[in-house]
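seq as requested:
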Amino acid sequence: MNRRYLLLSAVALALVVAVGVTAWGMAFRPIAVQISRVERDVPVQVFGLGTVEARVTSKVGFKVSGVLVELRADVGDGVPKGSVLARLDDREQSAQLARAKAAIEQTEANLRRAKASVEKTQANYDNATRISGRQQKLVQTNSTSVEAAETAKTTQDTALADLNLANSDVVVAQANIDDAKAQQQQQSATLDFHILMAPYDAMVTARLKELGSALGAGEPVFTLIDPKSIWVLAYVDESKAGEIRVGEPAEFVLRSLPKQRFQGKVARIEPESDRVNEERRVEIAFDHIPDSFNLGEQAEVYIKTQRLPQALLVPESAIEGLGRGRGTIWTVEDGHLQKREVTLGHRLLDGRYEIAGGLPDNAVAVNQLRSGLRISRAAKIIAEPRK
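struct tokens:
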């Protein structure tokens, strides 16, 4: 019995010693840690979600009312500037234009008649002037009566009045011609309004009416876009948008082409943010617009706000007490662990923070938290696993 008790006691003692040795080794032997190393030429990016849009888009229709009798374009068509898109029934307006042309011919005939009347009255006046002149001379020599001389003078005055009236008729006839020509121009312009033409080199994105539709003035028939104005409208969280500037480079990935990255630049930052989602609207122009695009397609946008010549980057998961640009990290200094409160700089899209200050010259930053970290414990630096 005693021999068995001694044996059990020896086994228990050996276990206690083994556990103690293991615990001592775990507490005091160097702990293996991974560290962050300084990286060079690090891009700082801001992320946003957006959609493919057209900066120039137009709903086009006729300036006059009428019935749609011809359509020459459909959705997806490219239409050059000035090409005919549609026509209205213009028979009534063509008749109005014909009447205006006839009115011009009539006023021109009236002008010719008035000018002929001027020539006639001018001749009458000249004749009356000569007769009156002779009668005035004869009166002075008593060769004719005073009544005859006065009659000749009255005839001359009447001829002059007729001449002035005829000249006035010419002026009126000329004014009527000008008015008739203005009416013709108006009717001709109104006739042109029965033809709908592309205002610029465009693409048709919607056809809103069909043949036979009775249209009101200004009612849209097509929706057009300028394919050269395609860009991505991105929504960026306001807390991340402060460093974005017009002209900065950007990349975006379309949902339909997840393996392809398009290059572009920030074209415009809208002055009004989305009040509900607290996002800033940023328009990104393509460097090279793709041959095929779909308006409204979702795009992931990456805007490069700057490049860091060199930076020490630590994952967010390795930072304790993160807040207001500061945090606490583990470091290795002279082969032992320490904790340092550091100043944080830029945050990258992969979740790493730039260590902007607070590290001693001999310190390196631990980039992965693990159990067993303790101030002053010896540390062994191991290489990071290959990504």
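The longest helix spans residues 91-140.
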